[in-house]
Amino acid sequence: MEERDFFDERPESRTHTITCPHCGQPGEYEVSWLVRRKKAQLPRGADDRDRARFAKAQSYMVRRDDMLGCKNIRCRKRFDVTSIQSVAFI
């Protein structure tokens, strides 16, 4: 059984305050995440090893956006999103 069988996936966007490394101006940016929530019950056809993995599984989010564009009209440069973790537990 794969890890995807233990979770329900759906995309979600959240706003974060991020400072542009080029111009230094902070701004509110929408960052898209893939939210994986643990299912209430173990799927059918699971063996003992799958039950142990399901017991240890936690809900988490994976960041989908790696690059953002600056909102400053004079800058407009793209930059890496390094100030936010790429995986966050819920």
From TrEMBL:
Q: Region Disordered: what ranges?
A: 1-21
Query: Ranges of Basic and acidic residues compositional bias?
Result: 1-15
Its protein name is Sarcosine oxidase delta subunit
